[in-house]
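#lab-general

N.A. 3:47 PM
ok so I finally got the sequence cleaned up, no stray characters, all 314 residues accounted for. can someone with queue access submit it? mine expired

B.Y. 3:52 PM
send it over

N.A. 3:53 PM
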Amino acid sequence: MLTCLRHFERIGVVALQGSTVLAPEEVPPSLPLDARELGLKRRRDEERLGRMLDYTRGRGSCRFARIREYFLGERGQDCGSCDRCASTEAPREVTPATKVLVRAALRCLDQLDFRFGPGRLAEVLEGRRTAEVTSRGLERTPGFGCLSAFERGAVREWLQLFEDEGLIERQAFESSRGPGGFTLGLTAKARAILDGRVAIDFACPEAAAQQQATRSAKRRERRNPDARSDDADIELDACAQRVFDHLRAWRRELAEREKKPPFTVFSNRTLRALALQRPTTHQAFLEVEGLGEGKWDRFGEALLAALQEVDAAD
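B.Y. 4:20 PM
back already:
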């Protein structure tokens, strides 16, 4: 506010006397404001606000280092004494699977360096073939869909983690119609990881870790069918069994087209629930256990079409 008043004082719109604002005798017919500069200032302010909000949401990142980066533009070393640094929470293990995923995601992001914002990058990492993705040919990007096994929220957590760890950074841009936004690109640290000069010393995000644990349990069940959990506890009658068999065949064809393991599309347990509930709408789809908006965006309409094929056959 004070900055605006100082500007108005310079151009003769108001006069400042201490903390008092004095109105001039005559008001200029128009204010000589630079719309472009005001737009750039707003963009800078919004970016700084976004960085501060990221600071409040960040996990496992030194608060002192983030504040230093915010005000001075350089991160520096962790302080070792803030609540983040002194946290007694046991760190999650840096698993080989995490290292593979991090390198795959960074290689994919490297192909799109400073071209897109977090929303579009998340779609590429998720393997979502949206209109914006296919119109730009982004589905042909090496590594497209490397995080497709995770829900959308977990992929966003991956991007936030990369930013917290200094692997990606923001770059503001200006559009032809005025203030733009920001794009994301790799940092020198990320390229050092890809080159093998720096080790990956951080675990995957919490939401992703939970999903990894779920997938690990499913892999153990496939290796040892007699030790399965409650997957087989969902009993199917003859009609539901026919739907289940049809969905399994549909899932296999879809997985082959997407070049993914079938379980990353839908688990057997989810197919059993679908065979029993047979959703016909978006809302009914979301009410099935284990399904969310991420699955709907990728496979929802195709699944409903597959269920309609069964109904037509009946």
